[in-house]
């Protein structure tokens, strides 16, 4: 059983979501996909017809968003009000705009408060939670007892994203996906407000040559070690 928070950070296509969800299920813990939160705010921005690089307008939309997240690893519904947006937040329009929206400091501040509430609730209820994102170990839960930073080669990441797109019925090509993954990682790593970077005390895990079971084994080993 997990006590507290496992922070799982890294760039896109490293297998974070699959691993985080499976890990939460195995440990009887909660699961929070913070990328889905940034994607949902981005969808609200696009629906409002706002330019994702317009910080003032993006902030105004973010302040009015009614975002509802589930921490049940078996039921990952993301809602804007009563509207379930799981599929739409994975679409191309949101994927293209999300890095601009997530670079807006006020958006990060609002989502940080929301993430803290969710983490507190899950720790009180289930005892622990696996939180996945870019800045969990550095900015959101810097005192997490276990932080893992997942990496993988650019090729492996593009391949994973492409097969995930195919499995979920989205059209994409390996080249376009590779370009998109590199574009987003560049933006996410270079922004001023809590950029994507490993915490100093994070354990690095290169997933290039590991399957999901292999990654899970390593992380469960770390959970055991730290008791
Ligand atoms: O994890 P996912 O690819 O769904 O994340 C989508 C985007 O959300 C990232 O490219 C990044 O711009 C943003 N994000 C973030 N901080 C997080 C999680 C996601 O800035 N903790």
From TrEMBL:
<keyword id="KW-0418">Kinase</keyword>
<dbReference type="InterPro" id="IPR011994">
    <property type="entry name" value="Cytidylate_kinase_dom"/>
</dbReference>
<comment type="similarity">
    <text>Belongs to the cytidylate kinase family. Type 1 subfamily.</text>
</comment>
<keyword id="KW-0547">Nucleotide-binding</keyword>
<protein>
    <recommendedName>
        <fullName>Cytidylate kinase</fullName>
        <ecNumber>2.7.4.25</ecNumber>
    </recommendedName>
</protein>
<keyword id="KW-0067">ATP-binding</keyword>
<dbReference type="InterPro" id="IPR003136">
    <property type="entry name" value="Cytidylate_kin"/>
</dbReference>
<keyword id="KW-0963">Cytoplasm</keyword>
<dbReference type="InterPro" id="IPR027417">
    <property type="entry name" value="P-loop_NTPase"/>
</dbReference>
<keyword id="KW-0808">Transferase</keyword>
<feature type="binding site">
    <location>
        <begin position="10"/>
        <end position="18"/>
    </location>
    <ligand>
        <name>ATP</name>
    </ligand>
</feature>
<feature type="compositionally biased region" description="Basic and acidic residues">
    <location>
        <begin position="167"/>
        <end position="188"/>
    </location>
</feature>
<feature type="region of interest" description="Disordered">
    <location>
        <begin position="159"/>
        <end position="194"/>
    </location>
</feature>
<feature type="domain" description="Cytidylate kinase">
    <location>
        <begin position="6"/>
        <end position="223"/>
    </location>
</feature>
<dbReference type="GO" id="GO:0016301">
    <property type="term" value="F:kinase activity"/>
</dbReference>
<dbReference type="Pfam" id="PF02224">
    <property type="entry name" value="Cytidylate_kin"/>
</dbReference>
